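Q: Structure tokens for this one, please.
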Amino acid sequence: MNKRLFRTQFNQMENIEKQVLMESLAARYDMTFLGLHTFDRWGQSCTTGIFKKDGREFVFVPGDTVTLGWEQFAVGLNQESREELEYLFREWEMERDPEEMIRESMAPVRQAAIGPMLVGRELEEINWEPVKMDDPRLTVHPDWLKEFRDFAWSDSSSLTLHQSARIERTEKGFQICIYNHTDYDALLAMLENRGFSLPTADEWAYLCGGGCRTLFPWGDGLDYSMRLHWFENMDEDENRPYDMEEPNFFGLSIAYDPYMREVVQADRLTTCGGDGGCNICGGLGPFLGFLPCSPHCKPEVQEDNELNGDYDFYRPIIRLENYD
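A: Here is the predicted structure, written as tokens:
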């Protein structure tokens, strides 16, 4: 394997060298190279290549050998996070050591060798398929069409008929989707057919945390100055992204919404980066609500292989296994 594809050597390369390397990757994988970009966040940075293929953007992520998992604070909880947990413990009438409680949700500490890869920058929906209004799978349901017509005259921005159909208001009119029931094996087969894979749980932890030893990429506690999904009134500036959704040090939008579980490659349906909103729905507050977004959180093995389009999302990757 080409050593230049690993983080230490890659970060030491001049940009002109990186440009040539990225152009060769684009040619090999039939992608459009959009250029080099520096991503600098939470104490880590990487100047790397951005690519486009089939309407989606990819970024080159160099390989590395890193420590993953969590067993103790590297810095310690900040005051706000400690106060939030102490309040919950009083409400529950229980005495707990925060570190001990958090450790129960974390994967064990381990060393992992992560190979270089091209990684989809955004999470993608699985079950929803865009269609036209005259699609026969829609027109056989006059009750759906009536609800769509009522929606068109309303002030709402979207309407979802549970695991059936969805309509959203856009600048160009309306976007209609139908829901296709699918399972984990079908998703893997679809991706393989297109030359893609899913990251493993270890690869996902690296993409999310970059080998950080703190609980989150930015530290051991929650940063309450950030705009967080589900805990921030965004009416004043609806188009401004939530802070955690902004690209990380690899240029990826990852682990920013606990309701969005990211499907990873495993023996059966396994997810990282969220719990489907269970902690938030349970009223556990921001810290425990976002704890499943930690890169070190235990991967969640689901009860069956049926994918849920409301909570399950995927990120295509290409492993550069034989590149020299």
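A few notes: The chain is about 25% helix and 25% strand. Residues 127-177 form one domain.
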